Amino acid sequence: MNQELHTTTIEPPRGLLNLNWTELWHYRELLWFLSWRDIKIKYKQTLLGFLWAIIVPLVNMVIFGTIFGGVAGIEAYGLNSYLSYLAVLVPWHYFANSLTMSSQSMVQNSEMLTKIYFPRLFSPMSALISNLVDLVIGIGILLVAMAVFGVLPAATAIFLPLWILIVMLTALGTGLFFSALNVRYRDVRHMIPFLVQIWMYVTVLFPFGKILARWGMKGYICAINPMVGAVEGFRWLLMHNAMTNPATAQPFSQVLLLNAIGAPVLVTMLLVGLYYFKRTERVFADIV
Q: How far apart are CA 171 and CA 124, in angstroms?
């Protein structure tokens, strides 16, 4: 009986942003396997397990709500300060965790990189998918907190997936860049927590309405940070019906403008991250 022989040829990627979509689809099951493995590793041999996904946002809500909302008196559209900060900390924690995990993914998967071939993009991408579990839990906590404070979700909450996509793409662009950079320079892993900490404060500390009331149109410069439009949109979609302060309450046009300003930066981050990742990909196995 004749048997057909199939030869698979693996070549270095060509072009600036060459993506083999057929290959990515063919290996799609591996992406889900890596994501599920990340979920299990994240909570393996932990005392509280998935409870950490509940404890972390609640503790941060108390800290931000007490110190910045209470002591510093930072007002957020007439919303309860605890609820307001929780609404932006939920998407922020997803972004921060995804960026941190994806930036370390190539080094952590070094044994796979040097022994077998698979689409390298799946390594940082799996972090984004695995962290969706924590995001869903965080949204559940937020909805419970809203019920406790007597705030009903606005009908516009059905558009939350679009703003979650913005957060995911921002994490993907930065994650691709730093995961490739971390292969070359291992001290990048020490820089990421510092970067994330600074990025958090410039994103979630002051509600944009407060910035606009203080600085006027110059305040829109902060929208070049795409996460500002993402977290402000997240809060607005859920709770704009409870924003009682007319001096700072946001119209939807303002939220759209924030995201429109951040969109070119987001696309640039994504393209730069993908370009650097693909450019460095051919030497991953040699230097990891």
A: 10
Q: Are 2 and 261 contacting, i.e. CB atoms less than 8 angstroms apart? A: no
Nearest-angstrom CA–CA distance, 99 and 110: 18
CA atoms lying within 13 Å on the CB side of residue 89: 25
> Where are the alpha helices (H) located in the chain, listed in sequence order?
21-26, 28-43, 52-64, 81-108, 110-115, 122-130, 132-148, 160-184, 188-204, 208-215, 226-239, 252-281, 284-287
101-148 confidence digits (pLDDT tens)? 999 888 887 777 777 777 788 889 999 999 999 999 999 999 999 999
Spatial CB neighbours of 57, under 8 Å, sequence gap ≥ 6:
86, 89, 90, 93, 138, 141
pTM, two decimal places? 0.88
Q: In this predicted model, what pLDDT tens digit does every residue of 241-273 receive, in sequence order?
A: 888 776 566 788 888 999 999 999 999 999 999
Q: Residue 8 CB: number of other CB atoms within 10 A? A: 5
Torsions phi, psi of 187, nearest 5? Answer: -75, 0
Query: With contact defined as beta carbons under 8 Å apart, do 35 and 130 qualify?
Result: yes
Among the listed residues 196, 171, 201, the one whose alpha carbon sits nearest the alpha carbon of residue 269: 171
Rounded Cα gap, residues 141 and 86, in angstroms: 9
Listing DSSP states for 266-278 in one string gives HHHHHHHHHHHHH
Q: Is 218 helix (H, G, I), strand (E, B) or coil?
A: helix
CB count in 10 Å sphere of residue 171: 28
Coil, strand, or helix at residue 10? Answer: coil
- Please enumerate in sequence order all residues whose Cβ is within 8 A of that of 97, keeping only pairs 6 or more positions apart, or say none: 127, 131, 134
